[in-house]
Amino acid sequence: MSTTQRPFRFGVVAAHIQSRADWISRVQKAEDLGYDTLLVVDHITTGLGPLVSLAVAAEVTTKIKLGTFVLCNDFRHPAFLAKELATLDLLSEGRFEFGLGAGYLSSDYQQSGLAQDSVGTRLERFEEAIHLYKQLFSEEMVNFHGKYYTITDAQALPRPAQRPFPPLYIGGGGKRVLSFAAREATIVGIAHKNGAHGMDLANTTGEPTAQKIAWVRSAAGERFSQLELSSMAFRVVITNQRDQVAQQIGGRFGVSPVQALDSMQLLIGTVDQVTETLWQRRERYGISYIVILEESIDAFAPIIARLTGR
Question: For residues 5 and 282, what is the distance between their CA atoms, to the nearest angstrom?
Fold first, then answer.
């Protein structure tokens, strides 16, 4: 299937919790509104433990996918985490999607006392871990001898419900990570690169996005058509004053209103305008899996209805 013909999917990232009842209400609301995936983050400062919260979500829903967005590779040894994830996939009857990253947030390392190695080391360890996870999910007995991990006669049980392994999400904004994702992932997230003062919004517009997808296409080769391409919208503003809002938001990030409207990580306009924007982005870039933050769950729901015919 061509990436431009792939059906739309929609994910919502939930990062906070007040009580069990509150969490269940949020989870069921996401499913009722037509979101395809419920995603949780993995930071020491957030209120949710990702694996337990997804296990509870699985018990109170029937169809929504459950994903990590994303687990930090440095926080858990693959041999133990693979067991937990396979269990989650098995008990949710194949609804788990596995997002993994190399780790980036300095406060996670500082507050936990873990050493934050160089970017190159973290990426190298992450890449090795991905190969190990694939073995742990798919082989009955695992022997692995790498630079960072050594596994000897490990019985990889239980088996995940999805074979050979749950869908794998890898996101990034640079050539190395995107090329690796193109070769190894099921879902490739086209992300931004941070500038000196936080998010570099200019790096999320059409031209750099096309370059990132070109890296993915080149590295993926024949498997490019099998990949699902994703982007995350950090802000969704439903308004009939599109130009004015684009000017305000663009000014905060040092970009023009045109660049703000062209950013993959901003969705600004009426329901009709945002719907058309997503159609155009899928046609031009093949991006069909859109992720939003939970504060936009209600505002974005009418767009899901338009794009899926609900």
Answer: 8
**Each residue of 24-79: pLDDT tens digit?**
999 999 999 999 999 999 999 887 899 999 999 999 999 999 999 999 999 999 99
Q: What domains can be seen in the chain, in order of their start residue?
A: 3-233+275-308 (3.20.20.30)
- Cβ atoms of 8 and 290 within 8 Å: the answer is yes
Say which residues have a Cβ less than 8 Å from residue 42's Cβ, sequence separation at least 6. Answer: 50, 68, 70, 71, 72, 75
Helix axes 271-285, 206-220, angle to 10 degrees: 40
Between the alpha carbon of residue 149 and those of residues 65, 81, 177, 238, the distances in Å are: 30, 13, 20, 47
Q: Give the number of other Cβ atoms within 10 Å of residue 147's Cβ.
A: 9
Cβ atoms < 10 Å from Cβ of 82: 26
Residues 49, 124, 223, 178: what is their CA dihedral angle, to the nearest 10 degrees? 80
- Give the count of alpha carbons within 13 A of 39, CB side only: 26
Instruction: Give the pLDDT confidence of 102-129 residue by residue, as tens digits.
Output: 999 999 999 999 999 999 999 999 999 9
CA torsion sign for 285, 287, 291, 297 is: positive
Residue 113 C-alpha from the chain's centroid: 26
Q: Which pTM does this prediction carry?
A: 0.96
CB 196 within 8 A of CB 257: no
Residues 122, 97: Cα–Cα separation, whole Å: 22
Q: What are 236's strand-pairing partners?
A: 267
